[in-house]
Amino acid sequence: MIKQIKNIDLELLFWVGGLIYLLLINPFEEQLFTLCPFHNLGIPCPGCGLGRSISFIYHGNFIDSFNAHPLGFFALTIILYRIVQLVSNLFNSYKTKNEVSHG
User: Fold this and answer.
1) Which of 33-37, 62-66, 99-103 has the highest mean pLDDT?
2) Rounded to 5 degrees, what are φ and ψ at 67?
3) Is 69 exposed, middle or buried (0-12, 13-18, 19+ CB in 10 A)?
4) For residue range 64-98, what is the model confidence (pLDDT) as tens digits?
5) Quick count: other Cβ atoms within 10 Å of Cβ 60?
6) Residues 86, 92, 95, 99: what is their CA dihedral angle, to the nearest 10 degrees?
7) Nearest in space to 29 (alpha carbons), one of 4, 58, 52
8) Which of 6, 7, 8, 10 is nearest to 18 (CA)?
9) DSSP state of 25
10) Under a CB-based contact definition with an 8 Å cutoff, are residues 95 and 82 in contact?
């Protein structure tokens, strides 16, 4: 069991968990939780709004998404591509281990 937990790709969990979180939040809420240190200090941040933008995409509000952050579509595309890449690597790794163990 512990060996299986060690084999879980943390990056994959991070991206999938983040996208699920963005799916479940209400992007119309005024104040959402943020980990951005710049935002929390009141300093403008070029990355702030990406999460809200992706959440708007999930809810079908594409104009609001673009207004929240113009690169939201691009960021979602890159994240989905990375998830596919990580799942593919995981599958190939599992396949290779089975081929080696079964001869």
Assistant:
1) 62-66
2) -70, -35
3) buried
4) 999 999 999 999 999 999 999 999 998 888 778 77
5) 8
6) -140
7) 52
8) 10
9) S
10) no
